[in-house]
Amino acid sequence: MQFWKADKPQEIERNIKGSDPEYNAKFEYANNYICTSKYSALTFLPKNLLEQFQRIANFYFLCLLILQLIPAISPLTPLTTLIPLVVVLGVTAVKDIADDFQRHRNDALVNNRLSYVLREGKLVEERWHKVVVGDIIKMENNQFVAADLLLLSTSEPHSLCYIETAELDGETNLKVRQAIPETAELGDDIHQLSRFDADIKCEAPNNNLSKYEGTMTWRGQKYSLDNEKILLRGCILRNTQWCFGLVIFAGKDTKLMMNSGKTVFKRTHIDRLMNLIIIGIFILLLVMCITMTMSCGIWETLVGTKFTVYLPWESFVPGSADKAGNVEEGATTISLLIFFSYIIIFNTVVPISLYVSVEMIRLANSFLINWDNKMFYEKTNMPAKARTTTLNEELGQIEYIFTDKTGTLTQNIMSFNKCSIDGKSYGDVVDEYGNPMDITEKTARVEFTGNQYAEENFEFFDQRLLDAVQSNKPLVHDFFKILALCHTVMPEVKDGGLEYQAQSPDEGALVSAARNFGFVFKSRTPTTITIEVNGKEEVYDLLCILDFNNVRKRMSVIVRKNGKLQLLCKGADNVIFERLDKSCADAKEIITHHLNEFANDGLRTLCLASKDIPEELWKSWSAKHHEASTSMENRDDKLSEVYEEIEQNMTLIGATAIEDKLQDGVPEAIANLAAAGIKIWVLTGDKQETAINIGYSCRLLTDEMEDVFIVDGETEETVKKQMTDFLKAIKDHKAERHSEESVHMQNGGVTFNGSAAELNVETPGLDFALVINGHSLYHALRPDQEELLVELGCSCKAIICCRVTPLQKALVVDLIKKSKTAITLSIGDGANDVSMIKTAHIGVGISGQEGMQAVLASDYAIAQFRYLERLLLVHGRWSYFRMCKFLQYFFYKNFAFTLCHLWFAFFCGFSAQTLYDPYFVSFYNVFYTSIPVLILACFDQDVNDYYSIRYPKLYTPGLLDSGFNKKVFAFSAGEGIITSLVLFFIPYFAFQYGVHYDGTDLSDHQSLGCAVASTLVVAVNLRCALDMSYWTAFHHVAIWGSIIYYFCFITAMYASSFNYTYEGVAYQVFSSAQFWFTLLLTCTILLLPVIAYRFYYIDVHPTLTERIRLKQRLTKSKSRSRDLHIRRASTLRRSTRSLRSGYAFAHQEGFGELITSGLNMRQRAEKSEQKSSVELTKVKKIDNNTPLPSYNDLYKENNNSSNGASNVAAQDNHPTVAVVENHNDSHHHDPDRHVVFCEKL
């Protein structure tokens, strides 16, 4: 009997025979059943427990539980660990089973969908999971495609069908697929379809969505199969009544399922730090346990043996009454057992509730992101979405942002703006002298009244182009004919109007432009294209489409009309220029000049060319093309060689320029993020000139910058030399400026949360920018030049990488991740951004015009780039702020709680006797102290969202990692240790000789434990109240409710009705004066120093956060006698350069340079420096011998300012606060003087 199934050999090639299920079955291809769930009813419990115990924390607590089950070593009941562990495992299991149940439902829903399948000459309704490879399926309009199919025939003319691929690649534009003309003749004839017996050979299953290679042999003919003839599972049939297809891949072999890989699990910086801290705490725990073990051995040897009459040793201990042995052996045995006992007792330093609380906090903050109406985009009804709950606090530590341009910074809605034809540039409005004029709302649009197909929303302002069309200029007609013929757009008549389905918005804009100028693309078949030129219909034979790809960067079609063969081509300028005839040198020079002008205006450009083809050349080339297209090996390379052969010696016709406008709020968002200290890298496919204009449009580049360095070397040596020279220039500039003047930035050393933080505040005028081309980046990313690139990039304020590929985007992100300890974020909206989104620590997807592919791969989804500002500066900063506070407080309260056992050990003979009631140990972190800290970690905010955005420097603590680090942890642990000493010894000495008013003794173990526990609960909850920056009624209920709940619960639990061992202890302790005096004294000693310390630093050394908190409170105060207006000085000096909108075509390369040197910018900067100086309030040159100004001097200085106006600080990247007050000499209140004093400091 065979108990297992042999592994199936790896599939290299797939062979399928139509209408022959027996032949197909012998290959054992996967059926169409899918299973994305993880568990079944039988495997859930063991598999889920196995997964959960693979987590170190869960396994650690499982080991503790096992130790507690051993009576000889366990001082606590196993319930103290069992209950929390079961709760944690149960909550996680419920979450997992809920997720898996949803997956089961989704699988069942998909597997039980119905399709019509051809079986034994009849169409029968069959469930999807019963479909197998080789079946012929009929699909109808708006149905999902059941499996990967070879399209055989459709209801539409010429066997076209339309599909929506949003579930595959996020693209919302309809795609077109077309059957082979020979199979299209089958139509919906069931009899002929059931006899379809073609032999198909194709590639093995893979995850490449854009490529398919295969051949079909039928009726003695061999046909090429490619992606245009395949319908993939997950697509939806649109605008097509019906179609038939042959199943090629089914179930788990489909490309959809092959792409359903596991999401990469990302961990935050705080998670990694916590792992190190937990290891350190465990080492500390071992040290304490070893110390207790040694102390127990010594105590048992010297003291314990004398009291065995009262404290007999266990029977298994050598030297006891029941077992022979000496004292040393017995003491050693006991001390070894005590080691494990103290492991159990001290484990609460890191309780299991820590991990549960962290997940709850992250979940709550994720909901706050999802519910934020200020990140809701009404136009698309799209809210912000946290697609993961594990990275929220990481949003508050982002140091590098890598952003795409098209659709991310721009709207990705294209409009035909300008063009160049026959040496003339069209698109600018000119006066009678030929000088260009600005286009305003009053500028008249070109009227296309004679064109019934003209679109109402099409705008063009240059009447000269329409006049050139109407005057029948040959090159102008050739220009628009190329736009009308060279594309893959599909026309559709909808509600009596002609609509286009384009696979990219720029291609749709070009075809629409031709339509409005009278060259209307009307219809297409597999072999013809029909256009209408000024009312006259023209039909062209479509002989071949040489399609676009990222390597070719061009697209061509070969058409015939009236016996004349032509190749029509459009593509990137550099690609077209390389393939022009020598006679086009003059035209090339003129168009190059126009292209540079278009790029200066930030437009996306394309070049158009054509070529007449002799019939003989076509016949020989067509044979080569057929051979290459049917090749099963290196098909793409062979086709590229064939395409290259015919796309030579072309004639240049003209160039187009398309505008892609910036999204709303992008410049302001980038300026604010840069002011927060975040470095922004733009990774774009645009040409160099346009990339620079992107920077100026977004305020990433400003005229006040010292220089913009351009790395454009073609060779490795040139690139290295350029980067070395630029880096040296930066260092020389900084050294020169540093030697000229020594300026003390009074706010340069800002303290955040009590810790000093040196900010990297640079002197104005020392900002640099770097622009690097894709071909130069190829050399710069080599291992021997990586460090140089990183050093140069990190020395610049703004970096723009142009002409980069998706792979280069990911490599740049990965380089910064490896070279710097900084947290990175990538943001994009298209499929070409997925690689960098997955590579970065955090990926943000924008649901834009290019579909949802980036969103599907992202950690967070937003609708507009401007919402990134709020996501980071508000939610990111709050999440980081809250998590840091939570961890500081959590470790503090648990050190204070646990180490009381350590001090008690010195008074109980190191016997592992617990100080507290065992149930108190279990409930301390679950009921008594959990709610206040969770409220703090979910809702606390130091300043509100308005000020968080208005003052971006508040983001700095996250960049400096000053909120929670090893030093902060050590401080919290130290405070916890001191607290434990006070908590234990004050009650100990107070109760040592304590007597109740009724004469009973209070110096027993249970009374001491109850007093310490009660004082602990009150003290740590009050300490939590001190940490809260934001108070509501809910916070008061959490703090005071937890304290009241504890006293009520402990009194009820220790009542006589429960017959518990601590019966009556609570009443006895709570009714004694010693306890209340101890409670008051202990809380005063613990909290008063904290209050005094914070008051001193807030009053004498206020941080930026505290100063803004003060302003926030004062602006809300209704008791002020003067109006207070708060404004922020500009975070970036406004550029004198006008903003440019739009950008170049994403896959083009331009000629000529927009900026040949930085001279002009330096001249402008020098001119701006010659203007009237700005008085600085926060930048002063201080003589070491001069005493600091006094409080009154600073206040008088402010009152003497003209009209009460404040001085606005002009520091770059250092936002300041200015107070403008309407002075009234009869009112001078101390709070106002304090504000001014803090402001001056």
Automatic annotation (TrEMBL):
Q: Which GO terms describe its biological process?
A: Golgi organization; phospholipid translocation
Coiled coil regions in record: none
What EC number(s) would the UniProt record show? 7.6.2.1
* Transmembrane segments annotated in the record for this chain: 56-73, 79-98, 276-302, 334-356, 890-912, 918-939, 968-991, 1006-1025, 1037-1055, 1075-1097
Disordered: annotated span: 1184-1209
Name the cofactor(s).
Mg(2+)
Where the record annotates domain P-type ATPase N-terminal, the positions are 19-82
Q: Which domain of life is it from?
A: Eukaryota
Q: What ranges does the record list as Low complexity composition bias?
A: 1198-1209
Identification of the protein by name: Phospholipid-transporting ATPase
